[in-house]
Amino acid sequence: MNSNRKRNLPITPSTSPLKKPKDDPDSDDSFENFVINVSPRSRSGKIELEDSFDKPITQKVEIKKKESGIPGFPWIGIDNRVRLEVVKSENIEGTLHVECKNGSIVYLQDQWSETKIEGGDILNLIDPKKWAEDDYIIDSEQGVLIVNPDVLVPCTSTASSTWCSRKQILNDRFKFGNSSNKAMLLGTIIHEIFQSALMIKKRPIKEEDLLEIWKKESKNYIQELIALSFTPNCFNAEIQPYLPIICDWINKKLPKASFFEKPSPLPSKSIISEVHDIEDNIWEPLLGMKGKVDVTIRTKSGTMESIELKTGKSSGSTEHMAQVLMYSMMLSSKYDQKIGFGNLLYLKDGESRSVSPRAQELIAIIQQRNGLAKYLENSFQNLLPEPRSESRFCDKCDHKMMCSFYQKNEEKFGLTKNEKMREFAEQEMAHLKKEHFDYVSRWIKWILAEWKSENDRNNFQIKDLWLTTVDQRKERGTCVAQLYVENCFKNIITFSPKIEISTTTTTKNATEFRNGDICVISTEKQLAIGIAAITKIHEKSGKIELSFDKPLKIGSGPYYLDKYTSYSNFSTILGNLTYFMGNDEIGKMLRNTLVDLIPPEIPKIGELSQNVRKIIGKAKLNNEQRLAVINALVMENYLIVEGLPGSGKTTLISILIQCLIATGKTVLLAAFTHSAVDNILTKLTNDIEDDKILRLGNLSSIGENIRKVALMTKMQNVNNDYGEVKKILKNTPVVACTCHHVPRELLFSYRKFDFVIVDEASMVLEPLILPVLATSRKFVLVGDCKQLTPLVLSKKAKTEGAEISTMQKLQNSHPKIGFCPKIVVSLTSQYRMNSEISKLSSKLFYENRLICGNELVSRSCLARNGEYTVKTKKNEGYLNRALSPNLEDSCVFIDTECEKNESMKCEDFEKGGCLNKGEAVIIEELYRNLLENGIKPDEIGIMSAYRRQVDYIQQHYNLPIEVNTIDSYQGREKRVIIWTITWTNNSSKKSELLRDERRVNVALTRGKQKLIIIGCRKSCDEIPILYELNKLIEEKNGFVKIEI
Length: 1044
Hints:
Number of helices: 38
Number of strands: 36
Helix content: 25-40%
Number of domains: 5
Distance between the termini: 61 Å
CATH superfamily of the largest domain: P-loop containing nucleotide triphosphate hydrolases
Strand content: 15-25%
CATH topology of the largest domain: Rossmann fold
Largest sheet: 7 strands, mixed
CATH class of the largest domain: Alpha Beta
Radius of gyration: 33 Å
C-alpha cells in the first residue's frame, strides 16, 4: 500500500437514511423492529475525494450497469462483486477501516461501520464505491457488505434471529430431542397437501381431492402420529379447517386454462403463469445465504416470485417478511432478474400478503445475517451471542438449559445484562454441582476440538463448490461430472456418464464414491439443486444410483455430483449432554453413575426360573458366560462384561436377551456399529420369533439377512396400517439399533426399557452413550478395553481423557468392586483363534489370560481341512511358508526388507495417508494362490491401518474379497487374514495408527487359522509394540523374506 496516498476523512454530520419521516406514506408497511439501530457516532461524514490523485477516478465515464429494481440497493451478480480477505480492522472517528491482504482498504460508514470484522474474515463487496486504484467505500448511499459469504446462513435462522440470535446458534450447535411436536407436524402435512394439490391438473379442486392426498401421504407420518397418540382419522379434524381455504386459493389463482376462467392476481398484482418448482433449493454464496422456497412461481411477465406458506393465522410478523425478502434476493441472483415481490400465504385464515422489497430492510437483513455468520463460520468455537435482555419467554425455550449453562459456567454472566435473566439461569442450574458443570464444560471443549480436527482433515469443504473448478474437484476425487439421467423411478435416480467418456475414466472417477455417501447434485447453471444419497455404484458402466426426493427428466443433464460431508453428528453428540443435565430421574441417574461414581448395589442371586435355566442349559455356556448371564439377570444398576477376543460375547448377549424375554422383560440392544448389532440379531433370530425383534435404522445400513425384522420391512408387510404399526413400535420386546440412532429415533420419546445392553461399549464415546443409558435404569456394558477405544482425532482431547469410554471409567473407578464377579465378569476362554495365533495377543496384552476354549480350537489349522491342498512348488520362496497349512506356520511375517527393495517403500500423501504398492502386489499373489489351494473368497480378509492402502487394493485389483481397515474389522473374523503393515521408515509420517496397541491387538485377533503379515521388519522394529510382536514371531521362526 502506498503510504503517500492522501485519505481525508472529515466528519460532517448527516441524516441517517435508515428511517423515513413519519409522514412518508411508504413507511406504514415497513418492519422497523428488524432494522439495526445505528449510533450517531457511526453516521460519519463521507470520505471527500480532494487530491488530484483521486479526482480522475471520479471523472471516469461510468459503464451502465444492471439495476436491481430497488432504489439504494445494488444488482446482485458475480460481475458486481469484489472478494477480499481481511488483515485487520480499526474504527477511526466513526468509520471502520478494513485493511485487506491484497493491500486494499475498505471504508465502512454509516450503518456498516458497526460491523464486526476480524483478521482472516472474507468479504464480498457488492457494488462498492471505488476510491483510488484499490480502495473501496460502502456507506448508506452505495454498496452492500457480506461478511464470510462462504458460510451459507439459513434464511429461517436469519429471520428468527431478530427475536433471539443466541437461540439460533444454540440450535445449530446442540441438536437434541427425539420427540414429535403437533404444531410442527400439522404444518408439515398442510404444506405437503398444498404443494401436492398445486401439481394436480384437475380443476376445480375439491376438498375430497385434498383428503385423498392426505390419505396417501398419511402412511408417511404413521410414526409421528403414534408418538403423538393421534390416529390418521383423528388428525383429519386438525386438517379440515385448512381444506376449503386451500381449494379456494388454488381454484382462483390457478384455474383451468380456458377463455372463460381468468386467474385472479396475487396481492403483488402478479398473475401466475405456472408453478416452476416446489421446495426450490437455493444456495447463494454471493449473499452467504441458503434456503428452500415453498413454492416458486413464474408470473405472466416472466419473472419468478416466491410463495411462503404459513399454517398459522395472518400476522405482521417481521420474521415472516424477512424470510420472503431473502428469497426475493436469492431468486434475483439465481434467475438473473430484478429483486421482485414475494408472497406470504396464511393457510389458517386464507390471508395473502405481498412483501415489497426496500433497500432499508434488505440491508438490515444482510446485517443480521452477517452477525450470525460470525458464530456459524467456525461452529467449533465455544462462543455465543449475548442472551436476550429479558427472560419473560425463556421458560418455553428448548435451549433454556444449555443457554443457562453457558451464562453461569462459561460466561460467568459477563454477557447477561438483566438481573431477572441471571436469576432465571441460576434457577435452571440449581440442581447441578461444580463437578457436573466441569463434566459438561470438559465434554463441550473436547467435542468442539473433535469437530475442528474433522473439519481440518476433510478433503472437501462446501465452499469448494464455488471456489474451485469441476476439473480441480475431479482431480481430487470429490466430484463426478458429465452425468445424464438414464432412469427415474419413484425416488431412485440413475445417472449415466456421457458415452464419449471412456469406461476406464468413468469407473475410476465413480469409485471415489461409496454406497451411502451423501452428495450435492448441481447443474451447469444451478448450484445444489438438492442433496442425495448414493444407493448403488455400477463400477463397470460408471452408472450411479441415488435416492433423491425430486423427479428429474430422463435424458436431462449434464449433472455434477460432489461429495458432501455433514457435521450434524457433532451437533447431536453435543446435544446429548442435555440428558446428563436434566433435572429429572434420568439426569440424576446419569450424574450419580458417571460423575459422582456412586458404586452399584451388589446383587443377591436368587432362584432362576425354569425357563431361564432351560435356556442357559441348552446354550452350553462355559462357567464365565453362565456367571455373566446370571449376574445380569439379578443386577440392580449395571454389569460390566469384559470379553476378550473370540470369547463369545455375541453368543452371551443373544442368550441373555432370550432369558430376559422369557421373564417378560423388554430390552434395548445397542452397539457402536451396524455389523455388531446385526451379528447379534443373526444369532437371536435362530432362537426367537421375528415378531419379538425390531431393528431400527436405514435399510441400506442393515444386513440383508436381518432386514426381515427391520421397521421399514415390517411396516410394508402390514401395509402401513396404523394399528399394526402401533403394536410393532410399542409392544416388540427387543429393539435394536446403533448408539448413533437413539437420539434421532421417535420411538425413544415414549418407550423405556427394563434393560439396556450395549455391545462394543469400549468403543463408544461417552456423550454418545448418554441417550442409550437414559432409556432404562439397568444396563449391561459388553466390550474389551484392550481393543479399540473411542476414536478421538484431537490430540489435546485425547491426552486429556476423551478416549476413555464409560466402560473403562467404571472399571477403573471401582477397584474394590472390580474384584467382585457380580459386577465385573471377564470372559477369557476364546473360540476363534488357534493356539499359535492366540498366544501373540495373550502374551502382549492379557498377561497370558487369553486361552483357547477347547482342544479343537487350539489345534485348528488349514492342514486339518481336507479342502486345502498346497499346490506351490518347493522352489517358490516365501510362498511355501506363507501358504503352509501346518499349525506351527499359522503366523507368518513376510519381510519386504524395504531398505534393500526400493519397490517396497511406502508413499506419503500431502493430504494424509500412506500407500505401499509393493505390498499390494504380494497380496494379489497370495490371494491367487490361496484360491488355487482351496480357500473360498469369503474366508479371506485383507486389512490395513491405512484407508488409502485399502482403497488402492480395492480399486486396482478388484478382488472379490473383503478389504477393509483394521478398525472396521473389530468384532469380525476370517479363516485367513492378510495384514499389510503399509508404513515403512522412509515415510515422514509418525505411524501413529500402528503405535496404538489396541489397534494392533485387533489386527492380531481376527484370523482363525492363518495370519499373514506383510511389512518391513526393520521399519516395524522402530514401533515399540511391533518390536515386541516381532520378538514373539522370531521365537517361532515366523519370518520369511521375499525374493525380488
